[in-house]
Amino acid sequence: MNVFKSLITGAALSVAVATSAFAAGVDLNASSTGLALQGYDPVAYFTDGAPTKGSWKITSAYNDATYRFATEEHKAAFEADPEAYLPEYGGYCAFGAAMGFKFDGDPTHWKIVDGELFLNISQDVQERWVADIPGFIEKADANWTTIADKDPASLQ
């Protein structure tokens, strides 16, 4: 009977997670299961200075997305002030947003600027972005007001 109960609970959890992904909207770059940042710990960028995979055992939900953390301390910091750790442009590529597109941000291509986390799609793109960070942030901020609620495919 315990096996049956575990299967039902697991199925219900899967449906709940999948449903939250659809509720997250298009302004957040999350997987089809609602996992944000491809499972990387958003706090680690600020505390450890490096992208760090989070544990599936240490999670928190925010804005209908699931975030993973490397430590309980990181989870507590996030829960105390989630907005301080979220990537800009919903985790989409900062350079792409500057160009008016929404491309997946790669959590291994990142930079913190003025206390904000920015992701880019690749090393090459990040190198272009770094050449004029203030200018690209200005363009991305302006574009984000019109593209945030649009499906990425509709911008192609």
From TrEMBL:
Keywords: Signal
Signal among keywords: yes
Stretch forming the signal peptide: 1-23
Keyword field contains Signal: yes
Record-linked NCBIfam families: YHS_seleno_dom
This protein's name: YHS domain-containing protein
